[in-house]
Amino acid sequence: MSKKVIDETSKFLSYVLRHEPQAIGLELDTEGWGDIDALISGAARDGRQLSRELIAQVVDSNDKKRFSLSADGQRIRAVQGHSNKDVHLQLEARQPPAILYHGTATRFMESINEKGLIPGSRHHVHLSQDLETASAVGQRYGKVVILQIAAQDMQAQGFTFYQAENGVWLTEQVPVSFIKPL
């Protein structure tokens, strides 16, 4: 498969599995799992051709490891980033490292300085353990600003952290007092 087909399929899967499964008539369970055959059928009704082979290739080649296949290979889900109100991943609380990072763009700093980091339409704020990942995320939105998050200090104050299967750290919000621009 060409890189273009894989990239377009990855974007489509992100949209459907994270945000709008109903756009193709796909039902997700509360853990975000959807039946692959139903996904392929729904995509076909939407004018997209998917196959199990293409889906497996997207899952395996995705550098951000956004998707997961069930052990039996019959279901797929996005591992984080959901805005769908029916999906509630059952993640275990974890001890975060002392510092985590968030990549954003300068144009969002006024809002962040007022409200802190909030999930917007998603369920959680996404944080990374390394500067490189945070920078790559921030570049998608404009001129990059890397924010250092005092994660263990937050946890000591009662905030809960989770880690998705792909290593992304998640929390419900990050108050301004725990954010330091780098």
Describe the structure.
The protein is of the alpha+beta class and 182 residues long. 32% of the residues lie in helices and 19% in strands. It has six helices and nine strands. It has helices at 3-19, 36-45, 52-61, 109-115, 131-139, 151-156; strands at 34-35, 67-69, 75-78, 99-105, 125-127, 144-150, 162-163, 169-171, 179-181. It has a three-stranded antiparallel sheet. A hairpin with a 5-residue loop joins strand 7 (162-163) and strand 8. Helix 1 (3-19) crosses helix 3. The N and C termini lie far apart (40 Å). The mean pLDDT is 95.
The largest sheet has its strands arranged as: 1-3-2
Total helix count?
A: 6
CATH topology of the largest domain: ADP-ribosylation fold
Radius of gyration over all CA atoms, rounded: 17 Å
Going by CATH, the architecture of the largest domain would be Alpha-Beta Barrel
Distance between the termini: 40 Å
Which regions have little confidence, pLDDT < 50, spanning 5+ residues? none
Quick recap of the structure?
With 182 residues, the protein is α+β, with helices and mostly antiparallel strands. Helix content is 32%, strand content 19%.
What characteristics describe this protein?
single chain; 182 residues; alpha+beta; Arc Repressor Mutant, subunit A; ADP-ribosylation fold; 3-stranded antiparallel sheet
Topology:
Blueprint: H1 3-19, E1 34-35, H2 36-45, H3 52-61, E2 67-69, E3 75-78, E4 99-105, H4 109-115, E5 125-127, H5 131-139, E6 144-150, H6 151-156, E7 162-163, E8 169-171, E9 179-181
Antiparallel strand pairs: 1-3, 2-3, 4-6, 5-8, 6-9, 7-8
